[in-house]
Amino acid sequence: MEQFKKQPRLPKFAVPKRYDLRLKPDLSACKFTGSVSIDVDVVADTRFIVLNAAELSIDTGSVSFSPPNSSKVFEPSKVDLVEEDEILVLDFADTLPLGVGVLTIGFEGILNDNMKGFYRSVYEHNGEKKNMAVTQFEPADARRCFPCWDEPACKATFKITLDVPSELVALSNMPVIEEKVNGPLKTVSYQESPVMSTYLVAIVVGLFDYVEDHTPDGVKVRVYCQVGKANQGKFALEVAVGTLGLYKDYFAVPYPLPKLDMIAIPDFSSGAMENYGLVTYRETLLLFDEQHSAASNKQGVATVVAHELAHQWFGNLVTMEWWTDLWLNEGFATWVSYLATDSLFPEWKIWTQFLDETTNGLTLDGLAESHPIEVEVNHAAEIDEIFDDISYSKGASVIRMLQSYLGVECFQKSLASYIKKHAYSNAKTEDLWAALEEGSGEPVTKLMNTWTKQKGYPVVSVKVKDQKLEFEQSQFFSSGSHGDGQWVVPITLCCGSYEKKKSFLLQTKLETQDVKEFSFDSNKTSWIKLNVDQTGFYRVKYDEELAARLRYAIENKLLTGTDRFGILDDSFALCMARQLPLTSLLTLMAAYREELEYTVLSNLISITRKVGRIVADARPDLMDNINQFFISLFQYSAEKLGWDAKQGESHLDAMLRGEILTALAVFGHKETLNEASRRFDAFLNDRNTPLLPPDIRKATYVAVMQAVTSSNRIGFESLLRVYRETDLSQEKIRILGSLSSCPDPAIVLEVLKFSLSPEVRSQDAIYGLRVSKEGREVAWTWLKDNWDYIVKTFGGFLISRFVSEIVSPFASFEKVKEVEEFFASRETPAIARTLKQSIERVNINANWVKNIQEEKNLGEAVQELAYRKY
Length: 870
Ligand code: BES
Ligand code: ZN
Description:
Elements: E1 14-26, E2 31-42, E3 48-52, E4 57-66, E5 78-82, E6 87-91, E7 99-110, E8 117-125, E9 128-136, E10 157-165, E11 169-172, E12 176-182, E13 185-190, E14 203-206, E15 209-214, E16 220-225, H1 234-251, E17 259-265, E18 272-273, E19 278-282, H2 295-313, E20 318-320, H3 326-344, H4 350-365, H5 380-383, H6 390-406, H7 408-422, E21 425-427, H8 429-440, H9 444-452, E22 458-465, E23 468-476, E24 482-483, E25 489-495, E26 501-506, E27 510-514, E28 528-530, E29 539-542, H10 544-555, H11 561-576, H12 582-590, H13 598-618, H14 623-641, H15 651-666, H16 670-685, H17 697-706, H18 714-725, H19 729-739, H20 745-755, H21 776-794, H22 799-807, H23 813-824, H24 832-854, H25 858-867
Parallel strand pairs: 1-10, 16-17, 17-19, 20-21, 22-29
Antiparallel strand pairs: 1-2, 2-7, 3-6, 4-7, 5-6, 8-9, 9-14, 10-13, 11-14, 12-13, 15-16, 18-19, 22-23, 23-24, 23-27, 25-26, 25-28
Helix pairs in contact: 1-2, 1-3, 2-3, 3-6, 4-6, 4-11, 6-7, 7-8, 11-12, 11-13, 12-25, 13-14, 13-15, 13-24, 14-15, 14-25, 15-17, 16-17, 17-19, 18-19, 20-21, 21-22, 22-24, 23-24
The protein binds ligand BES and zinc ion.
């Protein structure tokens, strides 16, 4: 018995082949009963069967094992549910015969409120609150619904039967084969599934409407949503049908199941979940309302659908062997979702937007407390935390880097052969590299091991030296220190034009390259840009002369948007790491005055906001000039875009308008604040006013909140009224995300209290956490005061957001101490990594502040930039 405790994985002397699972949820009592008969293959002599179970009560008398070809039934002498290890140990006294026998177990459980396992979600129907039953099993919560081998490699087939109220819709992974109504209850049985992992099993029981379509080869696709909202499912349905066709061609394997259902769940902890054949979503990421959803909502729906459907191949058909390879699922699905979105909506320039993904990966991976893409996992509680920007964003970015190195076609062919080889089975990272190596003849394993087995990434410094270029790599840290990691870096560079291109693999610390062929030195304004198109996962540091030439190239519009993005983003990161003075960063930012490309401007905005926050800590005396400078940066684009949508304008302009106006509001631009207030009043009188279309609502709400104080609460109260009146989740989120931007700390505190009130679903509480800089301190006090409640309510996946959002914005060493002291007695495995990362960020900010305070001539430079005439 003891030998099975404290083990990261189950012993494999008996493995499941098929589950016959029957469940009967009681939606009013919030309980369920169930029984499962599992075909178990005993492959080694044993007296024990060990599987996962948690928070279930096992009917001990019901447990039996019937071996193959024998009438003897084995009953366990002992049945132990070990809650700490989430295992069920059955001790049979006699050794079990080898071969496939049937293990039967009866059990009961609770439909919990924690959004994991088998849980209840609440919806309204005809003004009445009702319960629905929903499952969320990834990563390791199927064990909270039925006893099972809850590991991704233990694939088996599933035959599911449900006993549910007759009037409800009951969905599972496979199509219904029979529905028998018996008075108030009905028994619904589903077709047996192909082999799959337990974390992909799904059940939903409730009242829903749906819209339906078919793929050309006959897969039935439906989008289910709240009764009365079926129209809002049409956009996702269209995307799903299009995407299934694309993936079928790309992976060269058809969608493996006869149907695909997608469903909006009102209480949902992550964004969406790729359950095989029954994908579940937050409402905001599945439903699209022509009248009230914004362009950014539309894009959100499309990319999330594309992401979850990618998993139907990458994840569901071919599954990671263990959570160490989670990135194979998530990094890959993220990357492929861009491929699909680009093909369906080329005008969204989604590959440029992909750079946000790369930036997020680089940002997290710049911390010493980051982790390698392939990460050791020893305990179920550690898995939640690795659904992070390393697995998703760095994962997707290194895939893009590799694709760009190997070439589009070769990459796709090798992927298709990987899928074919590992279909209905499991794979590891090295299996993917093997397929790509075979397809390309390149040393993929050697190259990629440097990116997935060690954390971090390099900054490549480039210098002009005797008519040659010298390249040096060293590990980049946002803290400014240098590590000794080394990578095989696919370097690309252009010189003076995109036709003059060179590429090589940087395999050592230092290398010199001859660039005579570019006659680079004869023309002093000729630029050199590394990491062309930003497909590489690294940063570049140019010497002063090269940097000046690039600034000139930006001002003269000689570079692509992706390259403009990269130069800005790298400079910002280098500035934070104290390798570039703030003055240089600000001077570079001034070169983007006439920028109009969405992704570049959006990044410029986010950089101005971060710089604004740090300067507020370091040099509060400069804030007026800094704000003035930032406002001047957005003048050009703001005038081009205006407040009202232009006839037939692009999706990107629609998104950009909202972001620019939000930034102007935050920097205190008077005209923006006044215009917002005028339009908001019109909106309060008429929710369908053309003066406030969805794309500018967030900006308007933020502007309204800038004027709110404890003694002038009207804007706040009005927004709360809109929140209460709308039944569109996207609108509620827009409001929640705006309220805490208020500069009055007392109001911020009220907003935080509101976000824990019954009026805000737990899934949405996180949207109020991004508070104004003035609200930082009250938010921290609030977090401490409410910590026990927060732990109880948000245990699991969301809790780490509370820590990172509230702790990371600080910028002093005293705060580091305070945070450490508070959490010393409160740390748990679920927040351990996030807490360390957040504290590291505070230290980085604090050092940055010190550095800025010591910077000479900063005041004069800011003054000049703020009032420069163009
Ligand atoms: N497999 C995840 C869902 C998930 C996340 C389960 C965390 C358990 C823990 C799903 O495929 C996913 O990645 N969802 C994303 C949305 C996606 C578009 C990036 C999410 O939930 O954020
Ligand atoms: Zn995913």
